[in-house]
Amino acid sequence: MDILLYEKIFTIFATPKRNQALRKVNPLSTYKTISVNKATATKCWYVVDADGQTLGRMSSQIAMIIRGKNKPSFTPHVDCGDNVIVLNAEKIVLTGMKMENKEYLRHTGYPGGQRSSLAKNVRPEKLIEMAIKGMLPKNRLGRKLFHNLFVYEGTEHPHVAQQPKELKFDN
Fold first, then answer.
1. Which domain holds residue 161?
2. Selection from 59, 55, 32 nearest residue 135 by Cα
């Protein structure tokens, strides 16, 4: 009796119709993950006005755009992000008492060469650059991505030929 049951099950699953249905769906040909490379990446130019923007909030959003995480074709190991121009860097806002109390450390490379400076003594363009650089990857790709950021103190910039689009952030 067990043999008859086995033969029934075998004939149900071994019919030609079942095999044809299985051959039609090939998951390797229907679902493909497309990975962007340097040649296929589409890069845009954006202008951000830093007037009245909070440093950290604006920097994190700019870092995401430079990295390309806002695009559906994001690939982690490729520079697929956009170029960002930041204007009015001198009008950036630091919350609380950070402008008077926040210290930035650097090292000259010599013994005893640690230097510190307050945020109010650092150039505003440098404040924005340091904040965004700290949010990018710490490797070759991060150093390359950092070259997609352009920070200017006033409202003028030399990138008019690239026809940048204006980008607004909600604070």
1. 43-167
2. 59
